[in-house]
Amino acid sequence: MERPPRPKIKDAPGLKWRWRARSGRWVPYWVPRDDAVKRGYPSGTVSLDSLWDGTEASAIVIASRCKQLQTTMLHWLAGDRLNSLAFDGTIGSALDLYERHPDSPFHKLKPGSRHPYSVYLRRLRSHIGEASVAMTSGPDVMRWWKVWTDGGRKLAAGSFAVAVLKEAMKFGALCRYEPCRDLLFILRELSFPKPAPRDKVMTAEHVEAVRAAAHANGNPSRALAYAFQFETALRQWDVIGQWYPLDYPITSDVIGPRGKWHGLRWSNIDEHMILRFRPSKTDATTGAEVVIDLKLCPMVLEEIARVPPEKRVGPVVVYERTRLPYTQSEFWYGWRKDRKGTGIGPDVWSRDLRASAVTEATRAGSNLDDAAKVAGHSTKRTTAKVYDRARLEAARRFQEARLTGRHKSGT
Predict the structure, then answer these.
(1) Where is the Tyr recombinase domain (predicted)?
(2) Which residues pair with 293 in a beta bridge?
(3) Angle subtended at Cα 361 by Cα 224 and Cα 295, rounded to the nearest 5 degrees
(4) Which residue of 26, 325, 352, 401 pairs with 366 in a disulfide if CB–CB is 3.0 to 4.6 A?
């Protein structure tokens, strides 16, 4: 099939055409200037495909939209950030408002949550950014959901896309934009198939093997992290910590190229080997603190014994190569490297160690109340003394049940 000539539209700054071989047609995009991209302009490339039908009328609409996008970019380059946040009725502008407004709850997201939100905001902006909020109906969202899930094969992706879109509309509604309020109502009324919960579980034998692999690969820090995740049931991002922007309202004395770090420190472990730690997920909500007796965590004790006493200061898990705590990508890369040859499948994630801990305990007879306390899921608030005692006793029963189960199986 011979490629038709590229369409031409006058007075459309930033307009670019890209050939799509699969559909056999040219697709219009607005593309920000290189200098704006280098300075961090957040909008990115915008698809104008929904506006183009080959007619002169659609060409006029595209030219008008390009001028609007170009003006917004120029305002941004000139430092007029508030003007560039004006809601213009499109889903793209509502997404921009949510991501960039100084009072948006987006800025309160922890790094582990902010990254996937940013990824999906870009995807939504590219796919439906030009759609009108006021004109979007339930069937429109249902049709988009089929694209986001690749025809229903990727339910988790569809669920997250809907969740991000809903958060953006919620903030738009709080800013008194009526179309956002209407679309938020529609989104809340819609229901979609949910992805099945993860069911990947590792055994103590798997954890022993992956710890050995981490040591063989020259990274005992990851072996220590795996031991903490599995034995204490702490979340991965609490064990290795998270890197926050420098302006994030959290105190830290660990500063690096990625910002400032907050996570598990040696000072969280007292002289009796009792770990007290407030998980990041509950820090801003219930304030629930996890209390663990590490004397009942043999894998952790084995790994701690390898760390010289004089090095037990600051962050517990420090990457040997950078001498700083891991970034998420560094740790994930290391996990993929360590699990090879251990019998752990490629569909098993390092964060599954936490769920594996709870599974091992409940299978061995630990009650769910104890498991909830150890995992930091309780919402009860009592005095600090009773709070510590209840959680410590729960943690001891939890660990003892696990060790009994291991001994019975001969591990």
Answers:
(1) 197-403
(2) 274
(3) 45
(4) 401
Structure token pair of residue 161: 């896309």
Give the architecture (CATH level 2) of 204-409: Orthogonal Bundle (1.10)
Q: Where in the chain is the domain with CATH 1.10.150?
A: 85-196
- Tokens at 76, concatenated: 């941004």
Four-way CATH pick for 85-196: 1.10.3300, 2.60.40, 2.40.10, 1.10.150:
1.10.150
Identity at 185, one-letter amino acid code: F
Token pair listed for 389: 């005692």
The CA distances from residue 126 to 63, 143, 158, 408, in Å, are 18, 16, 15, 55
Answer left, alpha or beta for residue 199, where phi above 0 means left and psi between -120 and 50 means alpha.
alpha
Is residue 228 within 8 Å of residue 264, measured between CB atoms? yes
Give the Cα-Cα-Cα angle 341, 220, 256 (nearest 5 degrees). 120
Give the global pTM: 0.64
Q: Which two tokens stand for residue 212?
A: 């050995």
- Residues counted in the chain: 411
Q: How many CB atoms lie within 10 A of CB 264?
A: 23
Question: What is the layout of strands, in order, in the sheet containing 15-20?
Answer: 15-20, 25-30, 46-47
Nearest alpha-carbon partner for 378 in 250, 256, 290, 315: 290
All CATH 1.10.443.10 domain ranges of the chain, comma separated, are 204-409
